[in-house]
Predict the structure.
Amino acid sequence: MELTMRWFGPADPVKLWQLRQVPNLSGVVTALHDIVPGEPWTSQAMQALRSVVEAAGLRLSVIESIPVHEDIKLGNARRDERIQAWLESLRVVAAAGVQTVCYNFMPVFDWIRTDLAHPQPDGSTSLVFRQAEVERRQIGVGELSLPGWAEAYTPAELADLRAAYAEVDAAALRQNLVYFLRAVVPEAARLGVKLAIHPDDPPWPVLGLPRVVSTTEDLRFILEAVPNEHNGLTFCLGSLGARPDNDLLAMVEAFAPRIHFVHARNVKRLSDRDFDEVPHVSHFGSTNLARVVLRLEELRPRVPVRPDHGRMIWGETGRPGYGLYDRALGAMYLQGLIDAMRERRQHG
Ligand code: DNO
């Protein structure tokens, strides 16, 4: 697989020159983070992003994400207009030579954690999720704050959105996803861009909001609803692996041709609905990460993979989950697995 890392643009405390020094890292995963969801991206901004990445000696491999506006997920009167804007962004991304686009279809909140700096026995901190905690807390400003969404809405907007979702159950959300896919996949195919939906994180309904990208059945439904290879998956081991009934190896076997992007990270499940993020190294987590990555390398040798969330180690401070050090360790673990598989392939 192509080794990549995520970069949050010029405001990211982790710099491109630092990523460039991670051995064998070739690709960058990024987005136009300054453009508000729903606004079409401009080719000028996109080309500028590409130039910055290339000037650092790296390749712009994946866009993560073009945000899907809530009007699309809600399926309301403005969805067609929002879809047109999304397609406009997609065309701009394709024109910059990017062939893989990650997106998600989680209502209101993207990934959710209850603690972004939970102390671990070795003195590091990591992101953790406790179901009881999320249910106990009132969501509002300053609560469950997360990089990405906490600042995205005012409390009034949040209340409106949650009220709008009261009308949208899982079946409706699924239909809205199919509507979106039918509108965007043909254009993605024409542009030669692989779309890769990111699974729900965590992969179950949270805060009374439906989620429809969580299980094997969900993924199968999505892939079959629009049977085109440009309608594909981001295989996020950490998201899917938080759920004990998700058999990741079986999912890889079932969906390999449609897996266009891989997020590798490890979680330790403490119960059916509680987990800690742990080092990438296989035996720390509840998933046999090494086995899944080896199989992915075997079946999908060309797709981009990135180490996902890291812990905070060695005194680093920064964006929770996205410091440099532990993600670089994760990158090297992945590189080791990829090399092992290549050796095996070439020399038996
Ligand atoms: C979290 C990420 C997600 C992901 C989006 C994709 O760290 O994996 O925020 O980027 O869900 O749309």
Notes: The mean pLDDT is 93. The pocket of D-mannose is lined by residues 64-65, 102-104, 110-111, 198, 263, 309, 321 (CB under 6 Å). The CA atoms of residues 212 and 218 lie 6 Å apart. The first helix runs from residue 16 to 20.
